[in-house]
Amino acid sequence: MAYTYYDRLSAMDSMFLEIEDAQTHMHVGSVGLYELGPLRKPDGGLDFERVHDFAESQLHKNPRFRQRIEWIPTFDRPVWVDDASFNLAYHLRHTSLPRPGDERQLKRMVGRILSQKLDVGKPLWEIWVIEGVEGDRFAVLSKLHHCVADGVAGSDLLNMLMGTDPNYEPDPNPHLWKPRKAPAGRRLMLDEALRQAGAPLKLLRGSAESAGKPSGQVLDRALEALRGVVHAAEAGLHPASQTPLNAELGPHRRFDWTQFDLGEIKRAGKRAGGTVNDVALAIVAGAVRRYLLDRAGAVDDLEFRVAVPVNMRTSDDDGHMGNRASSMVVTLPLAEKTPEGRLERIVELTREIKRSGESQAVDLLGRFADFLPPGVMAQFSRFGTQSAVNMVVTNVPGPPVPVYLLGARMLAAYPVVPLMPRQGLGIAMLSYNGGFYCGLNSDWDAVPDLHDFVEEVAHEYEAVIKLG
Hints:
Layout: E1 7-8, H1 11-18, E2 27-35, H2 48-58, E3 67-72, E4 77-82, H3 88-91, E5 92-101, H4 103-114, E6 125-133, E7 137-145, H5 151-159, H6 185-197, H7 199-211, H8 215-237, E8 253-261, H9 262-272, H10 276-296, E9 305-311, E10 325-331, H11 339-356, H12 358-368, H13 376-387, E11 391-397, E12 404-405, E13 408-416, E14 425-432, E15 435-443, H14 450-465
Helix pairs in contact: 1-13, 8-12, 9-10, 10-11, 10-14
């Protein structure tokens, strides 16, 4: 019998696939700016063929780059199978700005590319190499569907091309790839039927393994998870306030960015007894307050909530794709009138949420959802994002040292977070080589003045880092 292969998507991975529609584009990504230098051709252009050959030599590092979605008949559940028609030229794309292309033109191009859904019939990623950026630079825009990976695991897409050694060259010996045959539909159906039939036994086995632990430890974990479920449910049952940032989405996106000094943010967090993430949320709170004061007139009574992804990966998850992020919901203290008050309140709120076990509870629910009917997680997510949360704010740690693409140093990296239903703005932040880079993704019509919000973010950063 010929060898066949497939890999199931978890319930959380499937959720990001199922929640996508014409207006909700579920790809994460980043925009990196690089010095052209080592990749400059004699005519002044970028040596794209060298980049292509390098990428081709690196694809073996993660099989997901050459896999596509297949659906199990009857059960309507997605699985990964090797794509026998994989063509790197489709996924790795080359374009250019009209020279000299300024950052405003680059942002507009990025917005247009982010407005295009990934083709679910092919491996769910694209990399766009954009030359012609002023200042002797080029850009690399990556798009990776959220069902493939969360923000932490998603860095593997660019890690395929980058490293800390500026002189790194690919292995001259090609890595031969032969697609594995996908199982027949009947085999997929039988495997899924057996998996679902064995689900209760698996849950019982997990309970038995827990029973082998000290009873106090098991009870503490159960109570912690229960408290987290109650805390998360309370947020879902009490809708967040509707604001000008929350409206029906269209298919078009704007993208903008700004950057800060990571050392200054760390110092501000240390003075307040908080973390880098606390300072980031305080900056967002101040920017939202100022932005909405101009457009809503009053903010003191608003219940403005942000979902903050929390990395739940352990050492066992290193190198694995897929989603292992939970989330916590933070109500931004818009009524606080000073930067000091907002930062202090954020530190208090995040401490309370961490003690509540909310993130662990959401992670536990995600694991349990693997045994529920298809689409349950997607419906749960639609309910939560449309009623309980106004915005997603995510912070991903990046490399603390410079990284290179065939000797070209990455100068900046602005991450992309997708927009959930009725969320016109999403904010993603990335630390890299002493900098703190902020990417803002928005709906073209819901937030036509995104540049004004970026200015508010920059203003609040200056106010927070001056706190003594």
